[in-house]
Amino acid sequence: MAIQFRCNYCRSLLGIAESQAGCTVDCPRCGRTQLVPGKSPRTDSGTPVPDLQLRSALSALSDLNATVSALPANASATPQNTTLPQPILLIDGLRPEIRTTRYTGLLLATATLVMLVPKLTQRAFDAIAGQAPTQEKLALVAWNAGLIVAIAVAQAIVRTWSRALIFNAGRDVEYELRGELYDHLLALHQGHYQTQSTGDLMSRLVNDIGAVRMLLGPGVLMIVNTPLYCVYAFSLMAWIDWRLTLAALAPFPLVLLGTRRSMRAMMESTVRVQERLASLSAYGQETLAGIHVLKSFEREEARARGFAALNDRYRVDAMDLARRRARIFPAVRTASSLGVVVVLGYGGAKVVQGDLSLGSLVAFMGYLQILAWPIMAVGFMMALWQRGKAALLRLGEIFAVAPAIASPPDGFAPATVRGD
Fold first, then answer.
1. Using an 8 Å Cβ cutoff, are 11 and 18 in contact?
2. What pTM value is reported for the model?
3. Is CB count within 10 Å lower at the N or C end of the chain?
């Protein structure tokens, strides 16, 4: 015998086998996770009380908490735009706040200071291996060491300044986006909140906006820094020895190809995890809002089982995403280590044969050491990008809802309103 109940979000009528009572299923229409009601309890008079009444009471209490009193109360429809805004269009109105592009010069200055250190080290080692007098060698080594210390101090100042400015720009975008969302939610009609859960909305306003801040803060920093460091370092390495540079880069194309193939699967996993978290938040909020109803019908254990089932699904999806991300970092690190091995073997042979100076090999190893973090950051950068993109799409669903009641474009707006 099938259990019939309505979805708490889209109100579609669902029919589930009685053996699935107490389990969680996904609504085929809206995709939200639902708890299948169990057998109907009975009142003192022996009249069966359908579990649907309990779910409706919980949903009504949740909607009551989510409804803003200032919103119009006579709206019933929830019009939706058929096309969701693209992520880049969602923050188009916040463009004055996105000032990260103004600080590209600071990032370029930081990269230049970093790249000078291996060059000075090369000069010092070439002086040590040269035929100059001992006093001249010591003076040249001391001079280069002093320059390296001065560059390190300047690099610390410029790097700290650029990080503060870029990260603050991401926080400015977060603040502006949160205000835009709040204003948009106030303009929506009451009927919209009758089909939305408070927990899901709070998840979007907290977790998704935080993901956008990470994308436009550390994400922008890594998106700019990684290509800049790679182009800078590879150019200087090619200037020293282009054959040795090609040998060091040999392992990277395979890693980049495999990473690109995994991006789509990572994006889908990221969206699924964020939706599971939203369902978890909505379920917990509904439970707390209707706790007295749950105790009246003695449904605490059923709600606890449903919450545990949602946690299990979230754990499975989160572990799947973590495994996908974990495959990227070892692959990139392995490629970087293989490059070091190639340089040490092939470059060392060229030094022994006299085709490459010792200082050049040391500088080459220094550039590879500098590239270790930018190359490893590719995986973290991809994770931030995919999470931020998924968050922007979820926030775009809120912006895509049009208010059912809107003022006409040529409406009369009095200059002052005064009561007598």
1. no
2. 0.56
3. C
